[in-house]
UniProtKB/TrEMBL annotation:
The lineage of its organism: Bacteria, Pseudomonadati, Pseudomonadota, Alphaproteobacteria, Sphingomonadales. Keywords: Dioxygenase, Oxidoreductase. Residues 142-260 form the VOC domain. It comes from Rhizorhabdus histidinilytica. This is Catechol 2,3-dioxygenase. GO terms for molecular function: dioxygenase activity. It holds the Pfam family Glyoxalase. Gene3D superfamilies: 2,3-Dihydroxybiphenyl 1,2-Dioxygenase, domain 1 (3.10.180.10). The keyword Phosphoprotein does not apply. PROSITE patterns: VOC. InterPro entries: Glyas_Bleomycin-R_OHBP_Dase, Glyas_Fos-R_dOase_dom, GlyoxalaseI/FosfomycinResist, VOC_core.
Amino acid sequence: MIEAEGHLDRLPKGGAPRLRAHLAGVALTSPDPRRLAGFYMDAMGYRGEWHGDVWTGSLAGRRLSIRPGSANSVDHSIFALPDPLHLADLRGRLVSEKVGVGDIFDTLLSGPAIELADPDGNRLVFGVAADAPATDAPDFPRLQHIVFASDEAGRMVRFYCDVLGFAPSDYVSDEADDLTSAFLRCSPEHHSIAVFRAPRKRLDHLCYDVADWTAIRDWADRFADRRITLRWGPGRHGPGNNLFFFVNDPDGNWIEFSTELELVKGPRETKLWIHEERTLNSWGTAFLRS
């Protein structure tokens, strides 16, 4: 019997991440960048400015930019590494795996960075973190992870783990032991990227971390004041054990607010979960992508 490309037996095993990094920025595309930027400034507290038709904002030391294009799409994501040695190590792995890379300069990063594409064509930028301390109040949310939907989830997971150096924290699988979602880390935080099995390749959601349960309440109230409806939650995820709720921005992008995300210290075996609503929300209903 031939196993599916996303069968658990064909996926990377647990351990510790070789990559040390954090999600430092995301660039969204939008058919109406000014409307979308207005949402992030008013509803979420971003400070930003325009350069031509591209808006760039900062919040809690992480960047969001918006440029013309289709809705529900990411132009690129930026990951910041702690020092040039870690960047050189990553570049070496990419060269040995014959992954095409380009050099790029970005003001969010210190010195030259590298740019590449994952198997689904998502553009990724890796560079050394610049010394740019956050100036926002401590109760503002921090961009923490990005999730991609994919019709080739197993292939994506193998690339992120075997090539880039992420470690799989948790896998969720169906009755045939085929992967439905994977949560991958490159720091002690449970995941900085996740991949969900879905009928097509797309952005699934962005997640912002807040301080505690009280902050979840306060941000839900802030959205309520602006007549922005919670689309899912509050609830608690199984993988990561975090509290959460979701809203939609004006383009329909899913935005998650989260707290109490599990911290993973050192190597560990990958936790396995059953593909069911309770896994994605132990408190109630869930949105299953496949």
